[in-house]
Write a structure and sequence with these properties.
GO molecular function: hydrolase activity
Radius of gyration: 19 Å
Shape: globular
Order of helices and strands: EEEEEEHEHHEHEHHEHEHH
Distance between the termini: 64 Å
Protein name: Alpha/beta hydrolase fold-3 domain-containing protein
Organism: Lithocarpus litseifolius
Helix content: 25-40%
Strand order of the largest sheet: 4-5-7-6-8-9-10-11
Number of helices: 9
Oligomer: single chain
Family: Belongs to the 'GDXG' lipolytic enzyme family.
InterPro entries: AB_hydrolase_3, AB_hydrolase_fold, Carboxylest/Gibb_receptor
Structural class: alpha/beta
């Protein structure tokens, strides 16, 4: 008789871990939102002004490129690069999911940038720092393209390697900080890391913050998700005070000693983890880092990825437009 495997950990709707170590990421939540977590195939033709292409380098790094169609007056223009790290608590989601496709095609089109979105290894099969290694490997790959050591036509023919920005959603924002810190210790030239844009980064402490206790939970972030995803993602034996989830904490390298590029920290007023994101901001300021704050009033965690809310709620739509405009301004100024 075959013994039925048992669930040992479940994260509402998103993920189930079984006693044999296998992981099931089939969406079991409301069916009307399932489309946001479904893959979008790449298309080399321009659709609504953006073409997409999946690449894989010799080191097994995979990434999706979002290339905006050049306007008549952009014939000789090279576009800045946004190197993008997706969210999902280090445990779920992929670079080709519709929620990212919808946002980053729009970002490429509006901001006139090339987005390069990395397919990150996921926990618990690949615990941290694996996803950070993926992000850093992607930056080194861009550096090799800039040096002419390797070639990717979509980037070599259209990208400005002197203006590379890191950007990440939620846990991808944590990766932004970690990759930027690593990059500050090496010479990437002729590539220049021009800026870093963590959007609603997943910063927490082992002790609950006031905002975690008081702010409303949202479809994209619940306390259950915070606790369980991080327990599955952090190195074994570590808690939320780990430097990856608490870079302003005592266990982390002092921010004063890090060589960081200019930062645009994007926060949402009703984010469950707002307080610890603000702790990070204040710590950066105290360390005399070049950091600007972009706040989305009345919004919750990763609101801009929720296509249903962006379509149905005028305020969410307006705040998403404002977020893209703020990021575009930051890129244009650096």
């Amino acid at each position: 008789m075959v013994q039925e495997k048992k669930i040992v950990k479940e994260v509402s709707g998103w993920l189930r871990v079984y006693d044999d170590g296998s992981v099931d990421r089939t969406w079991t939540g409301p069916p009307d939102v399932k489309f946001m977590a479904e893959p979008v195939p790449p298309h080399h033709e321009f659709v609504d002004g953006v073409a997409t292409h999946d690449v894989k380098n010799s080191g097994q790094l995979r990434a999706r490129i979002y290339l905006p169609k050049k306007n008549p007056d952009e014939e000789n223009v090279k576009f800045p690069i946004l190197l993008h790290f997706h969210g999902g608590g280090f445990c779920i989601s992929q670079a080709d999911w519709y929620m990212y496709y919808n946002m980053y095609t729009r970002m490429a089109r509006s901001a006139r940038v090339i987005c390069v979105s990395v397919y990150l290894h996921l926990a618990p099969e690949h615990r941290l720092p694996t996803a950070i290694d993926d992000g850093y490997s992607a930056l080194l790959w861009l550096s090799s393209l800039a040096k002419g050591e390797s070639h990717e036509p979509w980037l070599n023919e259209n990208a400005d390697f002197n203006r590379v920005f890191l950007i990440g959603d939620s846990s991808g924002g944590n990766i932004v900080h970690e990759v930027a810190a690593r990059a500050g210790k090496v010479d990437l030239s002729p590539l220049r890391l021009a800026g870093a844009i963590p959007i609603h980064p997943g910063y927490v402490r082992s002790e609950r913050s006031k905002s975690e206790l008081e702010q409303p939970q949202s479809p994209f972030l619940t306390l259950d998700m915070v606790d369980k995803f991080l327990s599955l993602a952090l190195p074994l034996g570590c808690n939320k005070d780990h430097p990856i989830t608490c870079p302003m904490g005592q266990a982390a390298p002092p921010l004063e000693g890090l060589n960081l590029p200019p930062l645009l920290l994007c926060i949402a007023e009703k984010d469950l983890i707002l307080d610890t994101e603000m702790e990070y901001y204040e710590a950066l300021k105290k360390a005399n880092k070049d950091v600007k704050l972009l706040t989305s009033p009345g919004m919750g965690h990763s609101f801009y990825l929720n296509k249903i809310a962006v379509v149905k709620d005028p305020n969410t739509a307006a705040q998403t437009t404002g977020l893209i405009a703020g990021i575009t301004e930051f890129v244009n100024n650096h």
